[in-house]
Amino acid sequence: MEKVKCECGHINPHGTILCEACGKILDEKMNQNELLDMRYEGSARRSQTYNKTIIDKVWNFFSSVKVGVTLIVVTLIASIIGTVLPQEGNLSIQIPVNQYYEERYGWFGKIYYTLGFHDLYGSWWYLLLIASIGVSLVICSLDRVIPLYKALKNQKVTRNSGFLKRQRLYSEKQIDNTVGDIAIVKGRLTKKRYNVMEENGNLLAEKGRFSRWGPYINHIGLIIFLIGAMLRFAPGFYVNEALWIKEGDTLAIPGTNKEYYLTNHQFILELYDESDGEVYKEALNQKGGVVKNYQSNITLYKAEESLPGEKPKLHKLEDYQIQVNKPLKFDQYAIYQSSYRLNEIAKMTFSLTDKESGQTFGDITIDLTNPEENYDLGNGYHVELMSYFPDFQIVDGEPSTKSSKPVNPAFAFKMVTPDKPQGEVSFAAIQQTIEPMGENKYKMTFKSVDTVNYSGLTVRKDLTLPIIALGGVIFLIGVAQGSFWYHRRIWLKQENGVILLAGHTNKNWYGFAKEIETIVHGTKIPVPVDQTLLKEKKAMEGQGGKSVG
């Protein structure tokens, strides 16, 4: 598209409303306005100039402030909904997540899970919303800040008279000799730390231009903040995992790519008693026990390099006691004591028994975490584990399990003996035995259980916090920059024996008008009039005259 050449000689980009140099109105429609819109100095914005290609349409879409606000509102609403029910990462459950939400919260929980709100901050569509806000901020900023920067950089001292007359603060007066008055005004402006430029007896005094960049500094801070938030989805930047580990177990620490392992030696639970002070007596009487401390005595290991499929060799790093508010910290990770489970069933022992004589032929001990399929008792006696139901229930007449947690374990056994080589089937649970195939000669008799304590640990790693903090600091700088300072410009122009004075600011018009009044006080240069207030006053007087008539 062709560029526009002003009568002052400056060449402006296509779509420019006010000449970047002298301020002359280039758009005939703007001549009808009494005051000028100075938000972007009348410079050409790409979104208002080009609208042909796909790139133009995408640019124009994201450059809209309405689109940006809409994206932010939608994201805020989604974030609020995400707090209605607990997020998946904060749950300490052993059953499938979809089953938990449906059983705990009914139809609402099912819809909540289906729409992905159970893992809101890890869902693809929430990430897309965050990315869209970032794109909108970048395009909105570039669409406005570049033209604004060029216009402010190219502005001349001597401005077009039409430009000055359409400023909100404006005055003009016929003055014979202005040399002394202009010198006084120039000196006062300099004392007030204005940047004063002079050309052919005309003045341009400017102060606080840097405040115009405050909103865009805000945008930069927000963009950095969003980048930090999005990096939480990148591998290695953010870890927030739950680790349930029973006493005696050694497990790989989740989120470390099996580089670190943890052994839980012992879980300790301490309760307050009356000897700890009178203040606990009432609570002890009401609750029966108040937790004083719970901790996990652990050993941290680092796995040495090994071949694929080879059991890793562990190198001991340290022994530690993890307590509430006393996490284990290593290599940018932190492991917190967050929960516990006491006296969980770990193993169950059954005896193969002759029902009539009561004679036993050996015991089998089943590890509920990793049960074996076959148990050889010797002398031709053999037990096969056909089915295992950790949390036994009957659904439609068929055995099933509510969860993978061994709350109410049950087993289907096949018992092979010398006199019953075809085997007999026995269904056994705690304190009960069922014979689904009819009367058996043998049965699996429940003998004992072994319990164990579990430590509930939370593994965290967050490399995005410095980035998020940096974005927040930059955002606050932008807020201060745009809130506590304001851009002020004063133009003085001599034209055919008439002196024209105009002023513009992006905020605090009342204070700015008072400042100009102080600067021109005692000189022949007239105090500028606020044309907006004058117009409102005339409108009110006109309405009053009509009502009286």
TrEMBL record:
Keywords: Cytochrome c-type biogenesis, Membrane, Transmembrane, Transmembrane helix. The chain crosses the membrane at residues 58-81, 124-146, 216-238, 463-486. It is found in: Membrane. InterPro entries: Cyt_c_bgen_Ccs1/CcsB/ResB, ResB-like_domain. Residues 65-426 form the ResB-like domain. It is a multi-pass membrane protein. Its main location: membrane. Pfam families: ResB. This is Cytochrome c biogenesis protein ResB. The lineage of its organism: Bacteria, Bacillati, Bacillota, Bacilli, Bacillales.
